[in-house]
Amino acid sequence: MKYISTRGTAPSLSFTDALIAGLGEDGGLYLPHSYPRLTPAEIAGFAGRPYAAVAEAVLWPFVAGTIDRAALRAMIEAAYGSFDHVAVAPLSQLGDNLFLLELFHGPTLAFKDLAMQLLGRLMQHVLAGRGQRATIVGATSGDTGAAAIAAFQGLPEVDVFILYPHGRVSDVQRRQMTTVAADNVHTIALEGTFDDAQNMVKGLFGDKKFRDEFSLAGVNSINWARVAAQVVYYFTSAVALGAPHRRVSFAVPTGNFGDILAGWVAKQMGLPIERLVIATNANDILVRTLETGRYETGKVEATQSPSMDIQVSSNFERLLFEAYGRDAAAVRRLMNSLQQSGSFSLDAGPLAAIRDEFDAVRVGETETSEEIARVWRETQRLIDPHTAVGVGAARAALAARQNVPTIVLGTAHPAKFPAAIERATGQHPPLPPHLADLATRPEYFDVLPNDQSKVAAYIRETLHAPHAGAKRAAS
Ligand SMILES: Cc1ncc(COP(=O)(O)O)c(C=O)c1O
Ligand SMILES: N[C@@H](CCOP(=O)(O)O)C(=O)O
User: Which residues pair with 137 in a beta bridge?
Assistant: First the structure.
């Protein structure tokens, strides 16, 4: 399987090369040359199998020829062995045809662990086999950073630099990143928004000299392997509800569009999905795009679901590439327009193709709190604000299609966002035992301006320092 860039001018790569490269040299995102198809019998055969076995079956066609199958199996088993639920991603019921896929049983309590625990092992395997090192530079609105740090801390082949928007993540999210003392982990509070952090990462990748000098690697969902690993739980959850004999819909709390794109990929692989519902908070660029055909960035709004306080949804570029019939020149045109004017307009055909498969629902702040309270009242379960946005969108989808089971992706544990939960329910969601003393651990981070040359200098100096990574506690 070869991987091609959405912008069409970067070389095609193997799975392992795309894994290490992350972003294409042309600024584009890698995706497979074609999507492997699973037969209905193969999909039906997933019923009752362990999560790791389904992961191996789903991921193997993407990986074959680059990593030995037994090695892949061992990495998958180790990755999901660290989860605190035997099902890894269990499904529970919230109401009539309304289901919750619990994606927060990994070490950092968010869906990012499902991919990142595997990605860490894959990268370590490939880098060690090649005798190479890499410098991971990642942007986070709160969850990717913690998951990446948990997956890569202490690994001898990598240094990790994570940029988060200063003051715009929850205390628990920040502390999950800043309290890790491993020498290869460097947490940066960037004076800006998540979009600034993501732009910074793309800018650093775009500086070829810097990229080559430090062997930059990306672990955001710009990395195809992240998306691929997230495809797995669409299969396990849909099969648990009767797929492929029964169609299901998914409501996906959406920011960078990686998670819902994984659902679209599952559909290309043969999973019968009825609708993919994009659930956004007040940062509703995707809802507006589906309504009007115009993708137009605005000012980011701080919400109680901060991980989705995002304007530029990176992975939407992958969907555009597909909706435009894999026309890389068209994608380049749209992305140039985005860079120059902060907007672009979709042509009628691609817009119709997107509307054919996706719905988009905005769930505001009041509704989000009401959803948290309602779910608590009706089921005695606490859900986090991102998941609540998904539940709100799922209810809208169910109003139009009552008979289609709708699965909400539960993307984070409520204990990551205690303030929002307490406001809505009066309940305090406790952190699990391994994080119980998080609030009293010392923090290590540096605050940097939103200036690419300063961030590049920081990375250079840190890596060239005699005791690279020596930590200082932040005041
Ligand atoms: C808790 C949570 N929910 C939802 C999202 C949105 O996911 P995506 O960026 O893949 O659309 C994120 C961040 O990405 C998140 O951290
Ligand atoms: N919400 C994310 C934003 C980055 O998303 P990614 O999936 O592209 O890594 C976060 O928590 O950091």
Answer: 161
Q: pLDDT (tens digit, 9 = 90+) per residue, 269-279?
A: 999 999 999 99
CATH number, domain 86-109+224-425: 3.40.50.1100
Whether the Cβ atoms of residue 115 and residue 146 lie closer than 8 Å to each other: no
Kindly give the residue spans of alpha helices, DSSP state H, lying in 179-297.
194-206, 208-213, 224-240, 258-268, 285-292
User: What spacing in Å lies between the alpha carbon of 412 and ligand 1's midpoint?
Assistant: 9
Residues that are catalytic? 112
Residue type, 160: V
Ligand 1 site-directed mutation target among 223, 259, 286, most atoms within 8 Å of CB: 259
Instruction: Please state, for a pLDDT cut of 90, what percent of the chain lies above it.
Output: 97
Flag whether pLDDT at 38 surpasses 90. yes
375 neighbors 385 (Cβ within 8 angstroms): no
Q: How far apart are CA 153 and CA 149, in angstroms?
A: 5
DSSP track, 349-374: HHHHHHHHHEEEEE--HHHHHHHHHH
145 ligand 1 Cβ < 6 A: no
Please report which confidence band the pLDDT of residue 352 belongs to, taking 50, 70 and 90 as the band edges: very high
ipTM: 0.99
Cα 194 to averaged position of ligand 2 atoms, centre (Å): 9
The ligand that comes nearest to the alpha carbon of residue 420 is 1
